[in-house]
């Protein structure tokens, strides 16, 4: 008699913990061929609220860590991911129905992307900051700072897509509440496990699975969220509605780009869009 | 003030300005009639009607956008950066040449003291054009690419009419965009004089279009489908409406909105300069400054001394005729704004804060409000939370650096902040922890074309000034 | 903490308000270094802001006459002669011979050996004789010589003594030595008024100027004075601003008024009026009086006279119409 598998329960990732949805709901996730893969937690607005609270609580500590330290932690995520690459390749093949070669390409790219962004932590300030030669006896320096708590609607591309939107945000010191791809949410939770074991403080990344159209509006209108990245929103009307809601507290908005080719090397824009420029003046005198 | 040394009036001559009885819209290089209901602009210091100004309706705005689009496609986007730069340099020079005229006109229409329009507004306007002129042929080094967006729709406020115009138009043109700009309805005159300057500079028609009007005209610009970029400076309320209006479009937006800046004074501050900074922070331009230091946070151990010195200093402020070279505080820009300042101040009284104001005779005509401070204010008071946009300072106290940070950041705004202390490491720590786009340490209300300006949180997004100011008008290298 | 020295003269002024402060070197240092710092840029911006005040018509006429009355008409040259000093004294009494309504200056300021000559010419005109003493301008002499220098000048009839502080002592942090020296010179002055010269060009920072101001006021100086005129920069608007703030704050604390004298480099009416505006707005109108504010100057007077003539005649005057003494 063959051994019975121990199946994994996919839950949410909030504040460094893996809770079930407070609503008790779950939904069926099928593989590319329409067969049951697993049940995923179906997050509610209250889960979204809890995730924002966790992200806000984590922001102070995360944003004031040294850039070097943040770089090390993001690099550590890459290391741990590398160690578990077979699991991710298998998950991608099952969930997205891609070939083994393709799955390997995505995992490679996801790991490399993390490494790429990790290196930016202590360079982005040098590249986008400025010493400004004002016409007067003043020291004047502009430096970028993270915007705060950012809500993200992740694109399809369960691993590479997710990594490509989350890494640039956390490496710059933001904390994140991400709604995983509705159709392929499981890899996001597995990635949560990687992050949870990579010295990433709880609450820096929070992963919700469930209905985009149900959860996203709560995050878009949440007054303690500073920015919203709509990359994964495919419904134009929903995107518009979210952008309107985001105006309530003037969230920084990144408009949808669901068709992005994530294999291309990104620019700086995913980091700088959710950074604020702070300019400090001081007189120069004796 | 001394009885034996009372300064005699020293008014700047009005003869340098020639205000026409009526003004049209500036579209495609020419002044044309507007089709809306013309409105009047008044001198807020006297309530004298200065001129009648055309209102642009939707069709007028459409004409302006079409002119801007034509100029963009046929001329401006094709011109080399070096050639665009020359036009901007020309404009900068003409502004310097006509500086006195612009300063007097600004003070007449706005109510600000001539010493500010003459020594701050107009020189900084010219400096902005000089600064961005130099960028026009160097954009590939900016980090934001060198591809313009197209037609920029720009809506500006009444507190620094020409300076806000410069902040908008100089970078837009340098990057190769064309513009449709609406000045505030209470202060259109220097923008219309700027239109003449564009003519003097032989700027190609349609590159700059100035349409006058109020909220409806602004809405028409913002929502026009052929506008690629919206830049707005003004209230947070309108900023939010604009953010909603552009939702779902491809329009790029920058917003410079309100503030409620904390000006934090520690007990080891250079006190005499801190007093100047507090005064400059809230009474500069009658407090009509989005980044005004409207919340004074003073360490309890020096609170009494600071207040005493502050009151003594406030008593030497000279309020009155904006054209008098010795005037420190001019007129409130409009009756409507005066009403708001009065209302919020009355709320301050009602909430139990203690009002102190400079004893002075207010002119009988015009819109005036004396420099005022409220003590005994707590974070819960409306005068500590809402932008008054007038010469009203709310004074709060703190005991420790952490308490100062907590109070300073406890606001939906995040435009600016001030810190006064002689301890260098504390300055840097405070500057790091303050959530604001501009932090002035041991100084306040300093502006420079090379220095980015803009807010966190509900104070808006995007930066104006400096290299960062180019981002708003370029497509970017990777988006 | 052990008191290092006690001064016999330390209670000469301010009725003991600062006894604790001047009890020891360390207490004095603590006090002086505890004064609020000065931000150079902010201070200079404030001074420049006041300098843009526009003074017209009646205010200007008043200001010019006041400025003339505040001038310490000065000659401090190796080539000074009795004849030169007599001429200067005559001019101090009647600056504009063509216009008897023109007021006299406050004083003439000379080296001690010229005091008797100056006094002889000035008589009871009301114009004071001020003498620079204490090994002016460097102050580099033994204490007994400085005191003898002072006594000589007073005995010769000086109404005012302009002493220099020991900048070397000040800059090396020996504040109590500077304090004692001022206090002793003051004692040697007897009834003559004491002006304390800092040579702000050598003190360099505004923080130092503020500390020197308090030191001199606590030691009993009647006036604090910027410069000898022999070192550049001499008087500047921001330095004078700091000193005006000091006398203002000193009165606030003790009730006593101390005068301020910028000296050196003030050459035009326009300059002088900028200083008066600053006096008015920083220290207050009480200081707009020759008893509390002076200009140490030589060429300034003729420019004041030319502007005065312009105010009365309505046309511009020329240097040929005023005496070069």
Automatic annotation (TrEMBL), chain A:
Residues 22-253 form the Aldehyde dehydrogenase domain. It comes from the Bacteria. Pfam families: Aldedh (PF00171). InterPro entries: Ald_DH/histidinol_DH (IPR016161), Ald_DH_N (IPR016162), Aldehyde_DH_dom (IPR015590). Keywords: Oxidoreductase. The keyword Oxidoreductase applies. The keyword Magnesium does not apply. This is Aldehyde dehydrogenase family protein. The lineage of its organism: Bacteria, Bacillati, Actinomycetota, Actinomycetes, Propionibacteriales.
Automatic annotation (TrEMBL), chain B:
PANTHER family: ALDEHYDE DEHYDROGENASE-RELATED. This is Aldehyde dehydrogenase family protein. Keywords: Oxidoreductase. Residues 31-475 form the Aldehyde dehydrogenase domain. It comes from Nocardioides furvisabuli. InterPro entries: Ald_DH/histidinol_DH, Ald_DH_C, Ald_DH_CS_GLU, Ald_DH_N, Aldehyde_DH_dom. PROSITE patterns: ALDEHYDE_DEHYDR_GLU. Belongs to the aldehyde dehydrogenase family. It comes from the Bacteria. Pfam families: Aldedh (PF00171). The active site is at 256.
